[in-house]
Amino acid sequence: MSSNEKIEPMQMWREWFVKSEKAWSQALTDMMGDERFSQGMGKYMQEALHSHRMFSEAMSQYLANLNLPSRSDVLDLGDRLGQIEDTLAALQVELRDQRKLFVNAKFDADAVSANTDPRPARTKQPPSKA
User: Would you tell me the crossing angle of helices 35-65 and 9-32 to the nearest 10 degrees?
Assistant: First the structure.
């Protein structure tokens, strides 16, 4: 190495990083391409799902014995509450529409009755006979 060449640690680190990344990528690709790896991962996933199901059932039973709601009970309750809220919102819209129809019908009836039969002015004195 001559005295004119500078040692750049970041450049050396970057080269090492790129080479090691390629080596790891190749090694993992070769390992995952093997049929034994796929079978092992499949068995591992089956066991993990089985243990999760067993834990969930045991926890549900434990909570039921303590008279506490399980996660599924709380989720079901949330769904029912959402349905009730949707129904109430629909009823509110329907009532608002009915109220508008009633007010419009009453306004129309008042307008028609005011135009058809005029009534005398309401005063405390009877009309004078002149």
Answer: 80
- Token pair, residue 68, equals 């506490």
Could you give the dihedral angle defined by the CA atoms of residues 20, 22, 26 and 31, in that order, rounded to the nearest 10 degrees? 50
CA-based nearest residue to 57, from 72, 42, 43, 45: 72
Question: Does the pLDDT of residue 126 top 90, yes or no?
Answer: no
- Report residue 95 as tokens: 């009532």
Confidence of residue 128 (pLDDT cuts 50, 70, 90): confident
Q: How far apart are CA 69 and CA 72, in angstroms?
A: 8
The token pair that represents 121 in the structure block: 């002015």
**pTM for the whole structure:** 0.44
Cα–Cα distance, 43 to 49 (Å, whole number): 10
Q: Using only C-alpha atoms, what is the Rg of the chain? A: 41
Question: Euclidean distance between the first and final Cα of the chain, in Å?
Answer: 135
* Per-residue pLDDT band at 96 (split at 50, 70, 90): very high
Q: What is the pLDDT of residues 27-37, one digit of tens each?
A: 999 988 889 99
